[in-house]
Design a protein that fits this description.
alpha/beta, 22 strands, Glucose Oxidase, domain 1, Enzyme I, Chain A, domain 2, 45% helix, 753 residues, binds magnesium ion, binds phosphoenolpyruvate, 8-stranded mixed beta sheet, 8-stranded parallel beta sheet, Beta-Lactamase
Length: 753
């Protein structure tokens, strides 16, 4: 802290700002007074406030010290100049000599040539940049951390004024080339296909902070601690939640409790209260700061935690504000959020939830996995969703095309409602034939299995009448944990899976953490290339106690029943042998201790790393079965990150290269008489499934939603017609044979592909 500007000065400035903001007059007038006050109190020659307008443009909204002619005239794109830089990175900049900075942009209309130093901070509202606040001085002046901190606190107060006054009119955001509000289309990526029509419900709408500045820090500290007690009670109640699903996620919820008790977090909030803000303003400020800092770290583990932090701060804010943020849903609700945790999703009545729109989100996030299990259409990475969508806006969510249609016309609603009806009818039709065998017209039997990862996925077994679980992703419930649950907890969980499978086979895959499925349990140094990093079997072979505990739990849970276990990301025979040796050791130990043996044991491997293609002979001597993970295999064959949305449809599994690889595997397995299946997403698409059958596969595992359509296609196809056609396509030089195969199938009466 400098002698120049003290904590007392800050409190005085804040209370003067509060008086101006609470006063009467137009927003412009009040903003003019605010910038003058800041410049004066912080002993700067200039204070300017830039506000984010439509199209990512920062407009000079008020200034003290720059030419008044520039107000509403000077505009900078995000990323342009120092102001644009501050907005782009949501990061403060403090420069004694701004002119020498490469990002400096000279704007003659502002009369800026007289000012040498510059300090600017982003104005944040609910973690989003809504403007930039800048001070400048004529003489070179180094700004210290305390001054940056002060300006950040002030910026937060102004951000509330701007947000409350809705300086950035919502309509403006929607306008495109002079068009009016209606019928806005926002694009994103689909995390779960489907269509939903309903009204927007904002998930945890930002709690509006009524009071920002306080004269009684001690009373605010009391309020904070009271609210923290409430928060802990809420998290405890969730942990002991009455809903069945919440139990399955109990371990994830424990992480929330850890955050709620985090001393660093609480003491930072206390410090901000001491500087003169109310408890809720302090929570918001600390959260905004943390969020911005975490966004800048290129570490997926931290990013994953961000969601939990958002959740926690929101819960705390709503307790402080005495409001409940989890309202009743209307019958047709489309939930709109920045991001959502799996447990938050569970809080809602899923019968009323027709879709989910997210501003952030990624295919592997927990909520996406849950939404798939619950059959809720999801469109994620929709830029500006929170700013553009208002509560109760009508929305058509077309998650098949990754589109959100805001305030659609009646015709559009009718069109989509008809599509939903047709889909419901189709689902009912699939359900009606679920007991019919998956057998082609020429009598070839196919075993259809489901992929699962959560207990609630298991309902899919009965709904689809699948033959079993071809892939149980054991990492799913544990993704957010620092450590794995102990053997007892794992034993209980796997036991439940076995029980709910009711005698149908379950293939458990050992932990596949790391890469795109980062678990805090694998938290180590950040990696440049996590998908190809220290992940999965590499990690568990290096930390054998993890693998041993998991295998021990699996062996105990399958006493007297069949045990099928496989290892992910195996890249060499030696890795498989090492993992298998650990399994054998655990089995010997179990038996030596008098444990009951499983009825039968099969130990297999995923085939998803291309190096195995040249080790098949040796591998097949050791592995009891092979399950091909086409998601990873495709990513490694084409060197195309499976999580990168820009590459999403660039390389097709129905490419001659991929089909030839699959053919090579099935041929080897046939020669050695080793069981082989496909468990990647490819198997869930009817056309792809037909291609796989034509290559010789007879065992497919997929998300439960794929079973109906795949069974339907199988039952309509004469396989002997497809076989020569697909084999012929292997020699094609086209990047994809999808369209040729589709036309062929349609000609033979296999539609809905
Ligand atoms: C795959 O890689 O295809 C697979 C089934 O495993 P996951 O999607 O869990 O990586
Ligand atoms: Mg995989």
């Amino acid at each position: 802290m400098t002698a120049g500007f003290s904590a007392v000065d800050l409190r005085r400035l804040l209370s003067r700002l509060r008086d101006v903001m609470a006063g009467i007059g137009a927003v412009q007038e009040r903003l003019d007074k605010v910038v003058a006050l800041i410049a004066q109190d912080m002993r700067c020659d200039v204070c300017s406030c830039y506000v984010m307008r439509a199209g990512e443009v920062l407009e000079l909204f008020a200034t003290f010290g720059l030419s008044q002619k520039a107000v509403h005239l000077t505009r900078l794109r995000v990323g342009e100049g120092l102001v644009g830089e501050i907005a782009a990175h949501a990061r403060a900049v403090a420069l004694a000599d701004a002119w020498s900075h490469p990002q400096f942009v000279y704007r003659p209309e502002t009369g800026e040539d007289f000012f040498r130093s510059l300090m600017g901070v982003p104005m944040l509202q609910a973690g989003r940049v809504i403007g930039v606040l800048v001070v400048q001085t004529k003489l070179e002046r180094p700004f210290n951390d305390w001054e940056v901190e002060t300006l950040e606190t002030v910026a937060m107060v102004i951000a509330e004024l701007i947000a409350a006054a809705q300086v950035v009119k919502r309509e403006e955001l929607f306008q495109t080339e002079g068009n009016a509000l209606l019928h806005v289309r926002l694009s994103g990526i689909s995390l779960n296909a489907g269509v939903g029509v309903g009204v927007a419900v904002m998930h945890k709408p930002h709690v509006r902070i009524g009071r920002l500045v306080s004269d009684d820090p001690i009373a605010e500290q009391h309020r904070l601690h009271g609210a923290l007690d409430g928060l802990r009670a809420e998290v405890d109640a969730l942990i002991h939640g009455s809903r069945g699903e919440a139990e399955a996620f109990g371990d994830i919820l424990e992480v929330y409790r850890m955050f709620a008790d985090d001393r660093g977090w609480i003491s930072r909030i206390s410090e901000v209260i001491a500087s003169g803000l109310t408890a809720e303003a302090a929570v918001q400020k600390v959260h905004d700061d943390t969020r911005v800092r975490m966004m800048q770290v290129n570490d997926p583990i931290l990013r994953e935690r961000l969601q939990d932090l958002d959740d926690l701060a929101n819960r705390l804010l709503s307790i402080l504000a005495g409001v409940t943020t989890r309202g009743e849903l209307p019958d047709n609700a489309i939930l709109v959020c920045r991001s959502i945790g799996p447990t938050e999703l569970l809080d809602y009545d899923r019968r009323k939830l027709k879709g989910l729109v997210m501003e952030e989100g990624s295919p592997t996030m927990h909520a996406a996995v849950m939404a798939k299990a619950l059959d809720i259409p999801v469109v994620a990475q929709v830029q500006g969703a929170l700013a553009r969508i208002d509560s109760f806006d009508q929305i058509v969510l077309d998650a098949n095309a990754g589109q959100v249609i805001l305030r659609p016309s009646d015709e559009v609603i009718d069109l989509y409602s008809a599509a939903i009806e047709a889909r419901a009818q189709q689902k009912a039709a699939y359900a009606a034939v679920k007991n019919l065998p998956a057998v082609t017209k020429d009598g070839v039997d196919v075993a259809l299995h489901i992929n699962a990862g959560f207990l609630l996925d298991l309902a899919g077994l009965a709904e689809t009448n699948a033959a079993g679980i071809g892939l149980y992703r054991t990492e799913m419930p544990f993704l957010a944990l620092r450590t794995l649950p102990d053997v007892k907890a794992q034993h209980a969980l796997y036991g439940q899976v076995i029980a709910e499978a009711k005698g149908k086979p379950v293939t458990f895959r050992t932990l596949d953490v790391g890469g795109d499925k980062i678990a805090a349990s694998s938290a180590t140094l950040p990696e440049d290339n996590p998908a190809m990093g220290w992940r999965s079997i590499r990690l568990t072979l290096d930390r054998p106690s993890l693998l041993r505990q998991q295998l021990r739990a699996l062996i105990r849970a399958t006493a007297g029943v069949q045990l099928r276990v496989m290892f992910p990301m195996i890249a060499s025979i030696a890795e498989f042998a090492a993992a298998k040796a650990i399994f054998d050791m655990e089995m010997d130990r179990h038996l030596a201790q008098g444990g009951q043996a499983p009825k039968s044991v099969k130990v297999g491997t995923m085939l998803e790393v291309p190096s195995l293609l040249w080790q098949l002979d040796g591998l097949l001597k050791q592995a009891d079965f092979i399950s091909i993970g086409t998601n990873d295999l495709l990513q490694f064959i084409y060197a195309a990150d499976r999580g990168n949305t820009r590459l999403a449809n660039r390389y097709d599994p129905l490419s001659p290269a991929m089909l030839q690889i699959l053919k090579r595997i099935i041929d080897h397995c046939g020669e050695r008489d080793v069981e082989v299946s496909i468990c990647g997403e490819m198997a869930a698409k009817p056309l792809d499934a037909l291609a796989l059958l034509a290559l010789g596969f007879r065992n497919l595992s997929m998300s439960a939603s794929g079973i109906g359509p795949v069974r339907d296609a199988i039952r309509k196809a004469v396989l002997s017609e497809f076989e020569p056609f697909v084999l012929d396509l292997l020699g094609s030089e086209e990047p994809s044979v999808r369209e040729r195969l589709r036309a062929f199938a349609l000609d033979r009466g296999v539609g809905a592909l």
